[in-house]
Design brief:
- This protein has 303 residues and is α/β, with parallel strands linked by helices.
- The protein folds into 2 domains: 157 residues, TIM Barrel, CATH 3.20.20.30; 130 residues, TIM Barrel (Alpha-Beta Barrel), CATH 3.20.20.
- Helices cover 48% and strands 19% of the residues.
- It contains 12 helices and 12 strands.
- Strand 4, helix 3 and strand 5 form a beta-alpha-beta unit.
- Helix 1 packs across helix 2, helix 3 packs across helix 5 and helix 6 packs across helix 7.
- It is globular.
């Protein structure tokens, strides 16, 4: 089972987390790009301190970064890690209206079409080092030195149908958050794969991100998930994907229970169409350190 983890904190702390995860055999580490240290900078540093583990962003918001700037940064990270390593994956997404309009003052206009145009600029730059594109949101004629070695794969945080179709046609896959097995099987995977087939592309990757906690009392675990992840349930993009999964909120989408139950739920994500699991470990109960360790021990046993 391909299982990745989340990284957070200071740059030095995240580098240490990556080194530890690689030593334990985890397949990947994912870095959020909303706040804090720039994740591409962290990946460039962590990649030089490790040898095998995949390093990806989950995700970098597109609106604040022009696709040319994003491509240049991605090429720099690829070079820093090593062109032949194939360990860097660029995860991007449109984020959410409050974060884009209210915090940054950038219009959040038709995000699905915006992303399609963004990919139409970004991917030629990553593959060929040049682009000539005239769209509604982006009009770009530019050149750059393309990444050495294989092009950097791009994953999109795609949840809505328009976004999933753009992703299937133009990117290597999706990285989701708050999409449970039912949402993957009935919504994400069918739309994404059909779009890829229609475009004559390979079967796309589906990295499934969910909160995970091993605990004896599943009800307690879900109640804790409600507390820790309540904010996601307030955002329309996540509300819609939770609805597709028949979940009333983040607590219903979280993977909780004892070792056997969590193992079965993780396998259920793969059976539903996921290719990888991105596990966001969260603590349950009074001993937070022991709770996290128990969950990590199980995940490590499934690698």
């Amino acid at each position: 089972m391909k299982i990745g983890l989340s990284a957070g904190g200071t740059l030095d702390r995240m580098v240490a987390q990556v080194q530890e995860a690689e030593a334990e055999g985890f397949s990947s580490m994912w870095f959020a790009g909303g706040v804090g240290v720039d994740p591409l900078t962290v990946i460039a540093v962590a990649g030089r301190a490790t040898e095998r583990i995949e390093l990806g962003t989950s995700i970098i918001p597109t609106y604040p970064r022009h696709p040319l700037a994003m491509a240049q940064q991605a090429a720099g990270v690829q070079q820093a890690i090593g062109a032949d390593a194939g360990r860097f994956t660029l995860g991007i997404g449109v984020s959410h209206r409050p974060a884009v309009e209210d915090m940054l003052g950038i219009p959040y206009d038709r995000p699905g079409k915006n992303m399609r145009e963004y990919l139409s600029v970004l991917r030629p730059l990553l593959h060929e080092g040049k682009v000539a594109f005239d769209g509604e949101f982006y009009k770009v004629r530019a050149q750059m030195a393309p990444p050495a070695g294989a092009p950097v794969p791009v994953l999109v945080a795609a949840l809505a149908p328009v976004m999933l179709r753009a992703t299937g046609a133009l990117a290597e896959g999706t990285i989701t958050w708050m999409a449970n097995a039912r949402a993957i099987e009935t919504h994400v995977a069918p739309i994404l794969r059909q779009a890829a087939t229609d475009a004559g592309r390979e079967t796309p990757r589906i990295v499934v991100g969910l909160p995970v906690a091993v605990c004896d009392d599943a009800d307690e675990g879900r109640a804790e998930a409600v507390k820790q992840f309540a904010g996601y349930g307030q955002l329309p993009n996540y509300q819609r994907i939770l609805e597709h999964g028949g979940a009333e909120g983040p607590g219903d989408a979280a993977i909780v229970g004892d070792e056997a139950s969590v193992t079965a739920q993780l396998q259920g994500l793969l059976d539903a169409g996921g290719t990888d699991v991105w596990a966001a470990i969260f603590p349950v109960g009074g001993d937070r350190r022991a709770s996290r360790a128990r969950t990590r021990d199980l995940l490590r046993s499934l690698l």
